[in-house]
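TL;DR need structure tokens for one chain.
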Amino acid sequence: MDVTTSPKNPVVSREEWLEARRKLLALEKEETHLRDKVRAARQTLPWVRMDKDYVFDTPAGKKNLADLFDGRRQLLVYHFMLGPDWDAGCPGCSFLSDHIDGALPHLNNHDVTWVSVSRAPLDKIEAYKKRMGWKFPWVSSFGNDFNFDFHVSFTKEDLAKDKVFYNFSAIPPEQAHDELPGLSAFYKNEKGEVFHTYSSYARGGEELIGTLMILDRAPFGRNEGSTMDFVKRHDEYEPAPTGEASSCCH
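>> reply
TL;DR here they are.
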């Protein structure tokens, strides 16, 4: 992907650069303080008791939502776009998921379980998971309404309507798809009761993608024409032509 063919930034003296950088630093600090404020507000959201039971297909057999906590009190569910008739997972969801395995020990030690959920049958999930080389838990909601109740899956009838509900608002169906991404959080108390505490959709999970955060600090940033249009599954990138890239160790 080469959206930016040449840099357009002015070249200035070191003193001018420092002045501009200090202005940006003030903005970055403002962003950090706003992020702290948003995080605090997120933690004070009211909760909703989960009265409906869902049974998922997992490699260890049938499990309900409470079972997915795996002995911990907090559960993060990533709504991974992989429909029943899809041959491969969404490239964007795959991009995010490339960042999860390394975080798992830290999440688990912090009383948090991560599980991806897709509507595809378990055998399709397992095959794609093997292809990608991932280790995180991933289960199928093929036989229940979980994806539909959390507004990340849509039937043909849904998409034929004037509006569909996604990201807490009604959107035109042409902006939707039969599967869409999201992240939901849950808490389980000592009685085994489960509560829905948080969900985010669309670009809401962007901060989970460390590669984007790194690219934001590179000279050309994300260098994209539309949101993440440069992303491919990690086994689909073409290797650099011989002589154009080399390891610093060789």
